[in-house]
Every structure is written in C-alpha cells, then in structure tokens.
C-alpha cells in the first residue's frame, strides 16, 4: 500500500459483517408431512412477511415424506410478534395438511467438534443391527454424528455419516475391526476440500479392473494354465518374490505365436462397474490410470478402449513373431507400482495426498499405502488389513461412494 493511500477501515463494506450475537433469540421452524413441489418456497414466502433472517436450513425427503427445518431470527421488536409468526406458519402448514413445530431458543447451532470426518458404510444389505454397532462405536470414540446421508441403494446400500469430535485416524482404527465383525465395508476419510479435490485414481488391473489374471489367459493358450495359476496365487499371497515368480511364469509362454495377443485381448472381462467408475471419474475431472504386473500388450489396449490417462505394465518380448518367454525393460513389481503412482501424480500435477489407489494383491500394498486413500478391492486378507479401507462387493463403481459421489450422480454422468 502506498503512503498516499489511507488505511482501510476495519468496518469497510468490503469486509464481512461480524458474527451474529450468539445470545440473539432464534426460532427453529420444523415442517413434516407428505412431500410435494412448492413446500420450501411456500414456507419461506410465509416467513418473509416477518422480515426474519435465515440462519440455517436443512431438508430431507425419505419415501415421499419431507422434514424441512429452518433456523431463523425472531421478529424484530416493534413490529409483528413471535406469536403472529407461529400462528401464521401453523395456518399455512394446516392448509397443506402438513405438521409444524416451532421451538424458541438463542443463537446458532452449537459449534461442531474438531476432527471432522466422513464415514462411508457399504452394506449388502445394511442391517439395523450393523448400523447400531457403527453408531455406538463412533460414540465410544467421543465422536458425534452430525448428519447421515444415503449415497446409494443399489447394488449396495451406501450411507455416509458426517462425524465430528474425534480424530480421523482414531475413528478409522476404532471402526476397522467393527466392520470386519459385522460384515460391512467402512471407509473413514478426513472432511474438507481435499476430499473433493482427489483428482487421480490409479488401479491395479488383474482381478481389479478386470476379472481375469492376464498371464493365465496366455497360459491357457500355451497349455500350462494350472502351473501358472498356482505360482500366481503364491505371489499374490506374498509367499513368493514377485519378480522371480514373473520370470518363472513368463518362461512357460515361450514359443507362443504373437497372434495370441489379440485372442487374449478379446477374452479379457471388465469387472462389473468398471466402465461406470471410469466414465464418472473422467466426467468429474479426475485423471485415471492403471499399473499392472501383467503386460503392456493388454494394458495399452485397455488404455485406448477406456480412455485412460496413464498405463504401465511389463512387456513380453517378441522375436520373429513368437513370444520368447522373457520380459523386456524395468519390472513393474510391488515397489514399481508405488513409483509409478508417484510419477503419474507428478505428471498430473496432483499431490499424493489427493490420489486414490485400488488393488487386490500383496504387490499392490506399497501403492495403496503411498496414496492418499488406498482401497483394497476384494483383496487377500493381508491386503485388507494393511489398506486404508476395503471393499468386498464385486462392483468396482462402489469406490465412487467412498469419494462421496452418489449413485444418482454417477448414473447421470455416465449416461450424458
């Protein structure tokens, strides 16, 4: 500011007004009944005659029944009275066969506690017993449930609890064993803008984005499917070094004609919900990538078909139109997947804290723990225990609910 400019007044009209008096009288107006168009407009048109200010609003519609709450200031002295407002609101409500309740008080809602979190619960089905257990566990940590909102009703029931009063990590630690015991999936993430800003999602491919293990599809054409499947299972359980097991399995493919690549691409089956997940994320501005211990001969095709932003995998060596039984280039193993996540995030301009990783095997663990949110998808026990959260239903698009994206929103964005 130059010396010729006068200092800005602390009450400049460019600055916000000071907070409303916490002891000022307010009225909580609650409306209940059968929902229909025009109720919200009608209530506030009725209140407008009393020149009140709106402090807070909340509205919920469940199975055609509306609960509308408006916290407003009391009428100013010298004009209409609180009694006039009460009488008028009750008359308006009765004319629409609604019920009204008006409660006097002072100030705004009490401040929410620190440590605000979103707790997303996926149930198939979600029972009253499991909901009670979750709510009780939240309370036992000192948390308060500020709001509950349904994200989806099909193919799973997904609800979100807005919780305050306890640290996110403490809440996650308390709810993880509860989820395992009652058979639901629970994700706990910190509230705030960063949740909406998660702009990079990176997935494993085999048994995550697709239902198959690609190397087993190749092995079926080489007549060694059983041998390869056994080694794959041992590697995914963390019982074998991934790089050694990869070389051992690929060696069994030596001599296959390269034409088998097109056959394998045609055999790949996407996981239910995969297209919806990717289309929704892309339309919402997310970037999406895959990393795989499989092969670029398949992931490059998936990248093109699905419109992915990033893809990386191992590459099968081909000489004279035949697979040699070797891979070329750097191996994409457990550590490699984490490195690629960092690389994709850097290229996308997204902080690691705003990334999401999804995988099912032990070789995904480093990637899951590097991401801001690591999701174990129908994973092995060792992976479920180590990841931030787990999804144990066979629909990949349920990951959207962990990001606060409703089923209705995903259906609109996927079909538009």
If you had to describe this structure to a student in words, what would you say it looks like?
There is one protein chain. The protein is of the alpha/beta class. Helix content is 38%, strand content 26%. The protein contains 16 helices and 15 strands. It has helices spanning 39-48, 82-95, 128-140, 168-182, 193-196, 214-222, 225-236, 242-251, 260-267, 274-283, 296-306, 334-348, 365-370, 381-386, 399-402, 407-415; strands at 25-34, 54-62, 65-73, 99-106, 117-123, 144-152, 157-164, 185-190, 200-203, 287-295, 310-319, 322-328, 355-359, 373-377, 389-391. The chain has a seven-stranded mixed β-sheet with strand order 12-11-10-9-13-14-15, sandwiched between helices. A four-stranded antiparallel β-sheet has the order 2-3-1-4, with helices on one face. A hairpin with a 4-residue loop joins strand 6 (144-152) and strand 7. Helix 7 (225-236) runs antiparallel to helix 8. The two termini are 50 Å apart.
How many H/I helices? 16
Class based on secondary structure composition and strand pairing = alpha/beta
Helix content: 25-40%
What general outline do the C-alpha atoms trace?
elongated
Stretches where pLDDT falls below 50 for ≥5 residues? 1-16
The count of DSSP E runs of length 2 or more, i.e. the number of strands, is: 15
Largest sheet: 7 strands, mixed
In short:
The chain has 416 residues and is an alpha/beta fold.
What's the helix and strand layout?
Elements: E1 25-34, H1 39-48, E2 54-62, E3 65-73, H2 82-95, E4 99-106, E5 117-123, H3 128-140, E6 144-152, E7 157-164, H4 168-182, E8 185-190, H5 193-196, E9 200-203, H6 214-222, H7 225-236, H8 242-251, H9 260-267, H10 274-283, E10 287-295, H11 296-306, E11 310-319, E12 322-328, H12 334-348, E13 355-359, H13 365-370, E14 373-377, H14 381-386, E15 389-391, H15 399-402, H16 407-415
Parallel strand pairs: 9-10, 9-13, 10-11, 13-14, 14-15
Antiparallel strand pairs: 1-3, 1-4, 2-3, 5-7, 5-8, 6-7, 11-12
Helix pairs in contact: 1-2, 3-4, 6-7, 6-9, 7-8, 10-16
């Amino acid at each position: 500011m130059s010396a010729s400019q006068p200092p800005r007044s602390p009450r400049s009209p460019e600055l916000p007004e000071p907070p409303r008096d916490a002891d000022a009288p307010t009225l909580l107006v609650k409306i209940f009944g059968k929902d229909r168009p025009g109720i919200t407009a009608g209530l506030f048109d009725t209140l407008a005659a009393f020149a009140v200010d709106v402090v807070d609003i909340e509205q919920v519609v469940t199975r055609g029944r509306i609960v509308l709450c408006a916290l407003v200031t009391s009428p100013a002295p010298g004009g209409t009275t609180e009694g006039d407002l009460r009488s008028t609101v009750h008359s308006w409500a009765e004319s629409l066969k609604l019920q009204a309740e008006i409660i006097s008080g002072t100030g705004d809602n009490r401040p929410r506690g620190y440590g605000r979190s979103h707790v997303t619960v996926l149930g198939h089905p979600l029972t009253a017993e499991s909901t009670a257990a979750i709510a009780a566990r939240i309370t036992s940590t000192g948390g308060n449930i500020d709001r509950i909102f349904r994200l989806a009703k099909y193919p799973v029931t997904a609800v979100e609890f807005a919780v305050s009063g306890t640290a996110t990590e403490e809440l996650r630690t308390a709810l993880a064993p509860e989820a395992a015991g009652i058979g639901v999936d629970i994700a706990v993430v910190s509230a705030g803008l960063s949740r909406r800003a998660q702009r990079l999602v990176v997935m494993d491919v085999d048994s995550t984005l697709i239902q198959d293990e690609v190397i087993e599809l190749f092995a079926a054409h080489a007549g060694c499917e059983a041998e390869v499947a056994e080694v794959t299972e041992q590697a995914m359980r963390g019982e074998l070094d991934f790089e050694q097991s990869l070389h051992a399995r690929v060696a069994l493919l030596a001599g296959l004609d390269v034409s088998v690549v097109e056959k394998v691409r045609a055999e790949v089956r996407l996981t239910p919900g995969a297209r919806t997940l990717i289309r929704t994320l892309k339309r919402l501005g997310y970037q999406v990538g895959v990393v795989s211990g499989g092969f670029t001969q398949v992931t490059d095709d998936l990248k093109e078909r699905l419109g992915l932003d990033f893809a990386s995998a191992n590459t099968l060596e081909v000489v004279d139109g035949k697979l040699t039984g070797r891979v070329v280039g750097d191996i994409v193993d457990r550590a490699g997947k984490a490195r690629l996540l960092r690389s994709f995030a850097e290229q996308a301009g997204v902080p690691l804290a705003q990334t999401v990783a999804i995988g099912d095997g032990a070789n995904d663990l480093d990637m899951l723990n590097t991401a801001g949110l690591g999701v174990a998808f129908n994973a092995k026990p060792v992976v479920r225990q180590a990841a931030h959260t787990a999804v144990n239903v066979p629909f990949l698009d349920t990951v959207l609910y962990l990001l606060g994206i409703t089923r209705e929103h995903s259906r609109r964005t996927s079909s538009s």
